[in-house]
């Protein structure tokens, strides 16, 4: 099996903890358990038995998650170790060599890479910057063949922060339904829409819709390592078969905390915190880009913890990011990770003072580069 290096994760794993200003993250600054839970809940957490749970996720947690969707129950949900495992067991359970997978890019690219390793034919359909980082639906239609098994997209999008409007989603569903194709959506940034209007889930729009979600990004709880798939029962059952071969079960401690945070009131509280941080930081980035417009431009994100920034300097994005890291101790993500040189991804979910300090260093680096 020829597995392509997952460059997005590798470069962050190598360097994000070695710099003074890590602006490579795509999520919102995380909670501590003390901030997240009240005194009674912390005491209850200390009494959680550290045993094996349900391999597909505790019944109570799956029921709670299912209530985030329409007409779903616990059998329509599998709980995984982060949304990354959800994507992994989805691909393992649903795709076979010779199938075709249409991926709308740029994207997180985990599904893209793992499908290729399984000898699935991956067909890319680009988001168009001139369309506001939305897809050309004629291009999507042309990409579908009789061998297409699934369409996969990420919305709110990583790395651009664009959000597919409901009208666009419905048009994608129409294309898929006409051919009996599954549609998968990575929805880990859902709920972080800056205007507060949370969009619909593909699992609610389409009978063959499958949603990946979790607590790592919009919910600011990556350390809990709780994700899930929501969708048709047959899809969930196939994913469950695969999970028995991977991590078996999620942490009982994490599931206890997860069942608290997915309750409507607590989830709303967490997402409000996320949107407050993101709106403040996007405004800071917008002002910085205006001040540095000779070198940088950006269609500001509508959601999510990152912005995809175009730069004008004559340098490869990976080389640029490594120079920033070694010369100014700033960590960003290069557009090369998405196959899109000429861009950098800047995280906007960090504490505001950290972002401002990092951007100040980035300004000084750019000024020195142009001298």
Could you characterize the architecture of this molecule?
By secondary structure, the protein is of the alpha/beta class. Helices cover 42% and strands 17% of the residues. It has helices spanning 7-15, 33-36, 39-46, 59-66, 82-94, 110-117, 137-143, 166-179, 202-205, 233-243, 252-261, 264-291, 317-328, 352-370; strands at residues 21-22, 77-81, 100-105, 121-128, 134-135, 148-154, 182-186, 209-214, 226-230, 296-297, 306-311, 330-331, 333-334, 343-347. The strands form three sheets. Strands 2-9-8-7-6-3-4-5 form an eight-stranded mixed sheet, with helices on both faces. Strands 10-11-14-13 form a four-stranded antiparallel sheet. Strand 6, helix 8 and strand 7 form a beta-alpha-beta unit. Helix 4 (59-66) runs parallel beside helix 11, helix 5 (82-94) runs parallel beside helix 6 (110-117) and helix 12 (264-291) packs parallel to helix 14.
- Total strand count, please? 14
List the uncertain runs.
none
Sequence of strands across the biggest β-sheet: 2-9-8-7-6-3-4-5
What is the mean predicted local confidence, pLDDT? Answer: 96
- Listing every helix as H and every strand as E from the N terminus to the C terminus, the arrangement reads HEHHHEHEHEEHEHEHEEHHHEEHEEEH
Specify the helix fraction band.
Answer: 40-55%
Please write out the topology.
Elements: H1 7-15, E1 21-22, H2 33-36, H3 39-46, H4 59-66, E2 77-81, H5 82-94, E3 100-105, H6 110-117, E4 121-128, E5 134-135, H7 137-143, E6 148-154, H8 166-179, E7 182-186, H9 202-205, E8 209-214, E9 226-230, H10 233-243, H11 252-261, H12 264-291, E10 296-297, E11 306-311, H13 317-328, E12 330-331, E13 333-334, E14 343-347, H14 352-370
Helix pairs in contact: 4-11, 5-6, 5-10, 12-14
């Amino acid at each position: 099996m020829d597995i392509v290096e997952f460059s997005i994760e590798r470069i962050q794993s190598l360097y994000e903890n070695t710099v003074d200003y890590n602006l490579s993250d795509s999520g919102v600054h995380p909670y501590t358990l003390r901030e997240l839970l009240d005194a009674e809940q912390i005491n209850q957490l200390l009494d959680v038995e550290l045993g094996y749970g349900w391999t597909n996720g505790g019944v109570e947690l799956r029921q709670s998650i299912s209530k985030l969707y329409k007409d779903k129950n616990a059998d329509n949900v599998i709980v995984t170790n982060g949304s990354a495992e959800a994507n992994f067991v989805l691909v393992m359970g649903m795709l076979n060599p010779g199938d075709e997978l249409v991926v709308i890019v740029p994207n997180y690219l985990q599904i893209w890479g793992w499908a290729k390793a399984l000898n699935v034919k991956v067909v890319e359909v680009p988001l168009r910057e001139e369309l506001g980082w939305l897809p050309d639906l004629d291009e999507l239609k042309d990409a579908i063949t009789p061998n297409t098994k699934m369409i996969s997209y990420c919305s709110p999008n990583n790395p651009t922060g664009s959000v597919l409007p409901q009208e666009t989603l419905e048009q994608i569903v129409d294309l898929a339904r006409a051919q009996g194709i599954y549609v998968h959506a990575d929805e880990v940034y859902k709920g972080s829409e800056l205007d507060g209007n949370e969009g619909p889930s593909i699992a609610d729009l389409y009978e063959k819709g499958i949603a990946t979600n979790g607590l790592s990004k919009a919910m600011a709880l990556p350390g809990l390592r709780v994700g899930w798939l929501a969708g048709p029962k047959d899809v969930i059952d196939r994913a469950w078969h695969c999970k028995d071969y991977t991590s078996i079960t999620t942490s009982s401690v994490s599931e206890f905390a997860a069942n608290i945070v997915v309750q409507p009131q607590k989830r709303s509280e967490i997402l409000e915190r996320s949107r407050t941080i993101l709106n403040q930081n996007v405004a800071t980035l917008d002002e910085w880009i205006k001040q540095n417009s000779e070198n940088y431009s950006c269609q500001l994100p509508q959601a999510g913890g990152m912005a995809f920034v175009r730069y004008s300097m004559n340098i490869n994005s990976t080389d640029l990011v490594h120079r920033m890291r070694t010369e100014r101790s700033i960590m960003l993500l290069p557009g090369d990770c998405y196959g899109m040189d000429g861009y950098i991804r800047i995280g906007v979910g960090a504490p505001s003072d950290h972002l401002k300090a990092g951007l100040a260093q980035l300004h000084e680096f750019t000024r020195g580069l142009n001298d």
